[in-house]
What does this fold into?
Amino acid sequence: MLKFLKSGFYTTLQDFGRFGYRNIGVPVSGVMDEVSVKKANVLLENREEDAVLEITMTGPTLLFESPTYICLSGAHMSPTLNNEPIENYKVIKVESGDILSYGKLESGFRAYLAVKGGFRGNRILGSHSQYYPVTPKKCFKDADEVPYSPIKHYESIISELKLEDHLKKLNVDVFKGPEFSILTDAHLELLFSKVFTISKENNRMAYQLTEEIGTHSHSIVTSGTLPGTVQLTPAGRLIILMKDGQTTGGYPRVLQLSDKSISILAQKKFGDMVSFKLV
Amino acid sequence: MKEVPLTIRPFGEKAVLVEWPNEVKESILNDILAFVKAFTNEYQSEWELVPAYNSVTMIWLSAVKLDFDYAKAQVLGIHKNNTQPIQNERFLWKLPVCYDTEFGIDLLETAESLGLSEDELIKQHTSQEYIVFGIGFLPGFMYLGGLPETLQLARRKAPRLHVEKGSVGLAGKQTGIYPQDSPGGWNIIGNCPIPVFDASKEKPCFISAGDKIQFQSISKAEHDLRKIESDIGIYNIEKTPLDA
It folds into this structure.
């Protein structure tokens, strides 16, 4: 078991999502930053989609109750193992009784903890991903536990990755959304020239941007939305739906982020900047 | 055979949006549901389909890059050749609602705004069969069509931070049930003690798009009983097959 001595700000168990229930309104969920998670799981020779902890802004304090191998990825949160600093993208052996804790957020917003073999536990509707009310809890609380299989010895093929870092990228690649054509020249000018600021309203459901691009009066009949769908409200505000986002919506869908761009945005926090690049 | 023109467009790298004519009509919904049924039978492992009103959002599940032209051919092939009526079993569900002001916290105000007595409001709300145009937004949230004009009024000026699970509300042309505790701006006129979404069930939402809903007025005592039954997993819901 991995025990939460302290839960941190918002820590959840996530795999790559819950598929096949969007027709009854269940969001897909899953890790916000797939790019970072795939790398950690690859290093541990797990399946890409094996369940990991997603750690937001302020990390937890975690006690390992059996030996295993871990890999950290995503945001840099000054992690320590038994008070010794450790790095992202390295396979690290942990013993029973070891304590992993996190410190200052240096860059990015969401850190990941992958464990050899992936975290276990019950799948609900085919997925480990926490999403209330599908799962009983929306995130971990102090004293919660999450199971993993003990592993005493493992020889990793690659023990470390040096990789292009997507944490500080400004540009996100977008496609035209279904209602792209409602945008006026004035909208387009702002949309693709401005650098936008992430507002306080940002979470696993959606990221709202602070700057507005001008009003409109188009309404659409409620229709499907996806992670990465950029909605334009009548007031001119941009809302980018994320992994726990609603499955349908009534605002025009003006842009659609590429998959990789969702990972880039997932690492941004209140006050960070983003700009759109049409591909 | 099919005369209904479809618009098929890419929706990002992993989805395709298929749109029917821009009207909210039962005949269009029926064509959509027949398409979803036939398409799912053929290609279930490759796609996840989300129908809502006049569109189907098709989400590509395979790790292989989506080929839009291939997808378009699949859609047109199924739509053109699918001449069968809907094969899904569809039901009329009678859902109990307690309109007591303990739950219907806006009932008095709503009735007054609509110029109706409370009894008249309840009578009108319960005499209608509402069609489910889609389930979305939140787990188990039904988009219901068919609210009489006499019951249509604007949503509340200031949304509430907390609306109780099961609350039955009116807002614009819509009526519906809040499937979970959530913030919301609808005018709350009652409460349904039966959860429309339960993740512990094999079929977490017993209602499907294309089904119909009718509300039945129950007393507070009956509401409390049905609520206790629901909490332990017993739902006794009256349903009638629609296409019988």
About this structure: The first strand of chain A starts at residue 2 and ends at 6. Chain A has a mean pLDDT of 95.
